[in-house]
Design brief:
By secondary structure, the protein is an alpha+beta fold. The protein contains 13 helices and nine strands. The protein is elongated and about 90 Å long.
């Protein structure tokens, strides 16, 4: 620093030696900033991260580099002593952290969701007790289109803390898991379906297999309930890739639980033909009122 001050003194700029000395560092810092920002943009676009999420990451990096540059300038000019600067920065950082702890938690969770990618925009998912079509992924929230056509923002920290079900699956994987290349009589599945419609789909084609439960009181005749449900499934079969499947799921003290599954090509069909199927099946109480024993 003394060498720089002596050299600049010949030009009458000795008093500005500290400021001038940090200029090369600031230039280098700016070059690194540009490289990192470009790398972030290209890398995140390559993995399909939404534009809103990319903007959020860029903002965080921009603030980080601005803080480094400001700290460097203030330290070099001796406007604030180094000790005071460090102490003030620590206090300020703690205050900001406490004030925005919830937002920061959401953002950290958002990084995890965007990195792990348990679902993507367009998927039909169930997050805890909320389900719908994913409309948007950001660092803070996941926006869903609910079955009643309202839109709900789910905080990403809730996504991390909740059980997540993604109903999207590849058709060929579904056929393999269901054992369509084996004798159906030799396997013990709770569902029985030939899946012939899925065989016609190209390898790698993604479909949506949605399931819902039907709880039937033990006051009803289970044979008549199953007969009614099968009749409804036959009636709606043409709306799905395969006839909806019905299987026993659980037995409680007062009821039997059956699980119904159907397969569609598009997630919005779950909100359309899928909802119509669920509504008609749920109406079994009215249809079988006379069958109570």
């Amino acid at each position: 620093m003394e060498f720089i001050r002596s050299f600049l003194a010949t030009f009458g700029l000795g008093d500005y030696a500290e400021v001038i000395a940090v200029i090369p560092f600031l230039l280098l810092l700016y070059v690194i900033y540009l490289i990192i920002m470009r790398s972030i943009t290209l890398s995140f676009r390559r993995v399909g991260m939404p534009a809103e999420a990319i903007s959020g990451v860029r903002l965080l990096v921009r603030l980080l580099f601005f803080g480094i540059a400001l700290t460097t300038v203030l330290s070099a000019t001796s406007v604030i002593s180094g000790e005071a600067l460090i102490t003030g920065g620590a206090i300020f950082g703690t205050a900001i952290g406490l004030a925005f702890s919830r937002a920061l938690s959401n953002m950290v969770s958002g990084f995890y969701v965007l990195g792990a990618r348990p679902f993507r925009v367009g998927d039909y998912v169930r997050i805890g007790d909320v389900e719908g079509v994913v409309l948007e992924l950001t660092l803070n929230y996941t926006r869903l289109l609910l079955p009643d056509m309202t839109k709900q923002l789910v905080p990403n920290n809730k996504v991390i803390d909740s059980e997540v079900t993604n109903f999207r699956i590849r058709a060929d994987e579904l056929m393999f898991e269901r054992g369509v290349h084996q004798e159906k009589e030799k396997r013990g599945s709770i569902f029985k379906s030939a899946l012939s419609g899925l065989k016609d789909l190209a390898k790698g084609t993604e479909v949506y297999r949605y399931t819902f439960d039907l709880q039937v009181s033990k006051d009803y005749s289970f044979k008549k309930v199953l007969a009614y449900v099968e009749e409804v499934c036959d009636k709606h079969a043409e709306n799905f890739l395969e006839k909806p499947e019905v299987g026993y799921w659980a037995n409680t003290n007062l009821s039997i639980v059956y699980r119904i599954a159907f397969i569609v090509k598009q997630p919005m069909e779950i909100l359309g033909v899928g909802a119509a199927l669920q509504a008609e099946i749920a109406d079994f109480h009215e249809s079988l009122r006379e069958s109570r024993t």
